[in-house]
Amino acid sequence: MVQHNDRRTFLRMSGATALGAGLMALSACTGTRDSGTGGGGGATVRVSWWGGDVRHAKFNEIYDLYESENAGTTIEREYADYDGYFERLPTQFAGGNAPDVLHVTERQVADYAQHGQLADLEALADEGHLDLSHFSSASLEAGRYQGTLVMLLIGATIPATMYNRRMFEDAGIELPSVDWDWSTFYEACEGFRDALEDNQTGTTYQAIAGPPFETMLVQNGKSMFAPDASAALNFDARDAEEWFQYWRDMLDEGLCQSAESASENQNAPFEDTIFAQANAAMHVQNSNQLVTFQTALGEGNPLGLAPFPQIGAEPVAFVIGSYACVNESSSLRAEGAGIIDFFVNDPRANEIFGLELGTPGNSNWAEAVEGQLSEVDQRVMDFAAEVEPISVFATPRPPGSGQSDTIMSEVGLAVAFGDLTPAEAGARLVDDLAAAIGA
């Protein structure tokens, strides 16, 4: 299910969520000079990614630079928000119209890799189109599906507990640490209940979030899905019942965000959520999003990062990745590999993109951005270093598993509103996830 990281790899990692944007396709101008790494020859290469306006601007700036140095090459750009992007991609593959270069995570890669639709990147490297020499063995291993390197790590992040230091200090509660557990978390929320105003709470309602649940499973030697990405679950209803019971107890004791508030925040702009408004002391979030939330909250509410509370024999901090792939059926595989090579190995491209998708998988990119990190970015890197001893890479999930976040949210909210007991919710989660992957 997971792959342990070495220190060098982990310090090159962390990632981002998609901020909204409509589905778009843009064509760019041609350039003047061939780079010799697969570009040139009058090719029009289609490249797709997900994200929001800031990320789109960075991708476009990098690809404008590539075109200016690769005579006759045009990069046709397709992008969308996260949901729109991954709704469209399967249709494109089914219709034989998928992009030449695409971005995925370990959650979607099996949808395409199992059918041989993604190119072998090591073969393209052997042909001289892609330099993998700066990637550690662990970061490359994270991009393998059934032994073949089909995706290259662009950035990685750690789903974490983001916390408001001012609220902890004002309430006189000890800050979270690497080795804290769910009992300590519960006790902290009891302290916040007694110290905060009526419209504030210790934590957002996390029973709707997949990462802390899966982290808990891994800490107990299990996982949400089978380690080999086959159509099987690797936990049972009892595991899920215990998770939902914990949060049912939190709700009943007034220790977390209410059901109504959690439901309202599901589709609200991040700046309208209770954590971004300093009305919750803790929240589940990808570590790279520290910059986004810190900007919203301002200097008066300094934020910190901690791993999810620990339970079981083996402490774990999950690492999830964002990856670049080449379409195996494309007639422009070499050109696509050359574009990825430029993206990950050219220091100018590295500086433009920074840590937008998290800390990168290759050492030369990390070195290129090291001197330009903001204070908040440095906090993210320091957190990555702190949890390095307990970090693990998430591995590919089976086809259909992309529905897991929606299922987790629906079942978790049903518990919050009292429509399901924890036992019923545990059984429902198992049944719905199994149906999603065809188990």
From TrEMBL:
It comes from the Bacteria. Signal peptide: none annotated. This is ABC transporter substrate-binding protein. Pfam families: SBP_bac_8.
